[in-house]
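Memo to structure team: turn this sequence into structure tokens by end of day. - J.P.
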Amino acid sequence: MSTFKKELITPIKARKWLEKRAENRPVSLSYVKELADSIKHGDWELNGETIKFNSDGELIDGQHRLEAVVLADKPILSYVCRGLDSQSFDTIDIGRRRDMSSILAKHGEVNYKILAGAISWAWRYDKANIQYGRSNSPRIQEGVAFLSQNAGLRECCSLVKCKLMSRGMAAALDYILIRAGKDRSLVDSFFLKLADGEGLSKSDRTSAILLLRNNLAGSKKATAVRLQPQYVWAISLKAFLAFEEGRVVKHLRFDLNKDKFPYLDEGIDS
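Reply from structure team:
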């Protein structure tokens, strides 16, 4: 007979339970860290998910949450289910894990997939973490809070349409440029020319857009080496500023290992 109740799970209790885990899926250290960060920041919520034990007292679900409690060194409240059939493990967590886009969709956001990407890129920019790319992302609660403080991201997700880079990144770039006081018509012109390639020349202010477009289009080919997204962000920002300043450029370069990452308020090397 199975039991179900709410319990306070301390780091000491979590360690003891982890010693009793049954054969389980491999631990994802990145997911443990993500959960631990949520616990440390007070974002953990009692939401009905359970930590599960089989009829032999072995842990069959919840190892990531327990590892996170140990890592955060902070207790949580969780429901605990005991006495499950040992075969129950095969039916656990076969659904898809919720991510930011699914949470935004639940909140009724339009363009929720693009918006999730835009939130992440703009958040990285504001945290000066762009150089780490997708390996550094906001927790879901951080992302939702960031959106409430940067509501203009929604409009940018609808405005910007560029298939040469992720639409989330394009929307975030659009947003941080407008937020920084850049002329809306100039920003729109930049993305339009980048998207359709019309009227670009090596000998005028559109030269940087031409170089950027060639870079991005080349990386889309099946045999091409994919560009790292943080590199795309950096050269896109450099290309816009060259376009804004009316400069003719012959090269558009950025070395992720050597160059200082570009931020608008610090000035950007050509």
